[in-house]
């Protein structure tokens, strides 16, 4: 019995190699690079003012329009929060304790692709026979013929519905002004940084 053990181990190893390594995730809170195509970036406007941007990678989105809008809203909120997190980091790095968020912008670049699979050159008719599709025009397919139910006229087992896929990229931009003391509308930089780090520290794509 023991002589078959090496073969069993070999088969397990081959199966593991065929499965391949698990997909690698990338931390969301990273500086944008041309190679990654996503992350945060900033432009210094003044000693106490920055424009901070966050760009998501190309994201797979639901095909359904309502679900897609919900997913976009969720990802846009995350992109904004990651930009805000970076702004809080910049404030603390500059020795500031407060930050105020000015104008914000959000851009969505969404592409929806619809692919249709061609049907077979015929449809099933009475008795399971295949007839040319031109015999069954749309009106006949819908209403049927006298004495013959419409179910067989348009029940083409080879027909496939459209395959819809969607992908999108979101850019969030905000302007942050820093200060050394609190004033109405300002955010505590340390508290903001800690809150967002706790919420998005493990966030990945």
Q: Which regions are unreliable across 5 or more consecutive residues at pLDDT < 50?
A: 1-5, 9-15, 18-23, 133-159
Percent strand: 25-35%
* Spatial shape: elongated
The overall number of domains is 2
**Nearest-angstrom radius of gyration?**
29 Å
- With helices defined by DSSP (H or I, 4 residues minimum), what is the helix count? 5
Q: Number of DSSP strands?
A: 8
Strand and helix order:
HEEEHEEEHHEEH
Q: Between the first and last Cα atoms, what is the distance in angstroms?
A: 47 Å
Keywords:
205 residues; alpha+beta; 2 domains; six-stranded antiparallel β-sheet; 5 helices; 8 strands
What does this protein structure show overall?
The chain is of the alpha+beta class and 205 residues long. The protein has two domains: 23-111 and 166-205, no CATH class; 118-159, no CATH class. Helices cover 32% and strands 30% of the residues. The chain has helices spanning 5-19, 65-93, 138-143, 151-154, 189-200, and strands at residues 39-46, 49-55, 59-61, 98-115, 122-124, 130-132, 163-179, 187-188. The strands form two sheets. Strands 1, 2, 3, 4, 7 and 8 form a six-stranded antiparallel beta sheet that branches. A two-stranded antiparallel ribbon has the order 5-6. Strand 1 and strand 2 (49-55) form a beta hairpin. Helix 2 (65-93) packs across helix 5 (189-200). The protein is elongated and about 60 Å long. It starts with a helix and ends in a 5-residue tail after the last helix. Residues 1-5, 9-15, 18-23 and 133-159 have low confidence and may be disordered.
């Amino acid at each position: 019995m023991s002589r078959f053990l090496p073969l069993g181990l070999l088969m397990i190893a081959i199966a593991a190699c065929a499965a391949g390594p698990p997909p690698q995730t990338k931390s969301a809170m990273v500086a944008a690079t041309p190679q990654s195509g996503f992350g945060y970036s900033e432009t210094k406007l003044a000693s106490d003012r920055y424009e901070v941007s966050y760009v998501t990678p190309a994201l797979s989105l639901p095909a359904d329009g309502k679900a897609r809008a919900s997913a976009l809203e969720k990802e846009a909120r995350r992109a904004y929060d990651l930009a805000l997190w970076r702004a809080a980091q910049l404030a603390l790095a500059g020795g500031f304790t407060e930050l105020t968020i000015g104008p914000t912008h959000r851009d969505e670049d969404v592409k929806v692709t619809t692919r249709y699979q061609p049907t077979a050159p015929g449809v099933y008719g009475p008795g399971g026979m295949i007839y040319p599709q031109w015999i069954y025009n749309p009106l006949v397919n819908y209403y049927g013929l006298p004495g013959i139910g419409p179910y067989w006229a348009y029940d083409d087992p080879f027909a496939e519905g459209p395959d819809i896929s969607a992908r999108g990229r979101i850019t969030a931009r905000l302007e942050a002004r820093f200060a050394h003391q609190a004033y109405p509308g300002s955010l505590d930089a340390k508290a903001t940084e800690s809150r967002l780090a706790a919420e998005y520290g493990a966030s990945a794509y």
